[in-house]
Amino acid sequence: MATLNIIYYTGTGNTADMAKYIGEGAENAGATVRLINVEEADESAVNADFIAFGSPAGGAEEVAPEMVEFIEGIKDKIFGKTVGLFGSYDWGQGGWMETWREEMINEGFSIVNDGLIIHLAVDDDEKIEKCREYGRAIAG
Fold this sequence. Notes:
- The chain is α/β, with parallel strands linked by helices.
- It has a single domain, classed as Rossmann fold (3-Layer(aba) Sandwich), CATH 3.40.50.360.
- It has helices at residues 14-28, 65-74, 95-106, 125-139; strands at residues 3-8, 32-37, 50-54, 57-58, 62-63, 82-89, 110-111, 116-119.
- The strands form two sheets. Strands 1, 2, 3, 6, 7 and 8 form a six-stranded parallel beta sheet that branches.
């Protein structure tokens, strides 16, 4: 059975909610899922068939420093893996996700679809289903 570790940083809880629903979608696709807050993650957190990283947009549309620091420390251990990227944002158009995706691709990672962004909270059926679909795409 495939494993998916979803490593995320959350400020308001929106990205944690995304992680939960992405996990549900991956479980529906047959994967075993672990949700890991990046603040509690260590190198073993990337020991899975698939990895997904979640971060809200912060500052001037930037990935959370906690997530950047974690990925810098483990990227040699996930080289060649397919990676999911997701996060929530409040303002702007989601440019931080485009930048994050491009940086990861330039590092040699394969990103599932174009990543997933949700405006503010995962608070309706459409947003929940988008998260579940992304989980199925990562684990599929």
